[in-house]
Amino acid sequence: MNYGLKPKAIAEGATIGVISPASCPPDEEKFRRGIDYLKKLGYKVVESKHVLDNYGYLAGKDEDRVADLNLMFRDPQIDAIICSRGGYGTPRIINQVDFEVIKNNPKIFVGYSDITTLNLAILQKTGLISFSGPMVAVEMGKGIDPFTERSFWQALKSVEPLGTLTNPPANPIKIIKPGKANGKLLGGCLSLINVVLGTPYCPDFAGAILFIEDIDEEPYRIDRYLAQLRMAGILEQISGIVLCQFVDCVPSEPEKPNLELEQIFDDYFKNLNIPIISNFAYGHVPVKHTMPIGIQAELDTDQGGLIINESAVSKIIT
Question: pTM of the predicted model, to two decimals?
């Protein structure tokens, strides 16, 4: 598969489709505030038929959630698609996604957390660059942080190179291993990256710059996910690592013997001869970058960290 198919940049007044391929937004008021945020910016918004369905921890039945996804890509009136939230559920529908429709109708697709599985599968099956970024019932519904907002709309609108993705001054990037690497940018939520390993939906990690984050995972579980990456040969293939925000990844029983995340990372990465940075502004946090999955990137610890020397979208043809 040739990666690097770019969606068209989002235009003023474009139509944005909103779907829930995983869990349902738990707070409809926050969801409505997110919809209003987009409308106030001048966008038209179309909610999918099942966006607020409930089926246990899922936003409706698998066949309904995937139908919403396929329809949004198929519909020529929809210019971009933003997920309402993550939660859980995308691994259940990957094998029902119409990737041919997506390949023939490339458009902006945004989501993170559980949506990581979809981001990676779409890249592998279609080559389309998608975006790990803010969602309607999360950041947009809460009141999106200005740093996050700037990064998001730049990624979706600008046909100029995105440049160096720097952290806010008060929260600098840390250099774990110096160096320079070039490769496609792959990653997302660590526990959801592992879902696609060994499947037809896993992209080629050879030479990739891997970025990872997670939330509410105990240290031993982060350890387990990294063990799987190592056993799958991923750590031997990649050219660089960006450690992002690991939120509330602490022991539930701190009185028992445990390892700190820094110890776990050192155990797995200390023998890798590749550049590694940490504390990068991305993940389940309010202040973060939007990450274009599948784009060519550079990791240069002497030049500020992660650099994207191209746009993530193509020009709008008028």
Answer: 0.97
The pLDDT score that the predictor gives to residue 318 is 54
Distance CA 296, CA 246 (A): 24
C-alpha to C-alpha distance for 288 and 269, rounded to whole angstroms: 24
What is the distance between the alpha carbons of residues 307 and 154, in angstroms, rounded to a whole number?
14
Residues in the chain predicted with pLDDT less than 50, given as ranges, are: none
pLDDT reported for residue 126: 98
β-pairing verdict for 209-215 and 180-189 = parallel
136-145 pLDDT tens trace:
999 999 999 9
d(CA 18, CA 15): 10
Burial of 197 (0-12, 13-18, 19+ CB in 10 A): middle
The residues assigned a catalytic role are 113, 213, 284
- Residue 139's alpha-carbon distances to 7, 19, 148, 286, 306, in angstroms, are 23, 15, 9, 7, 23
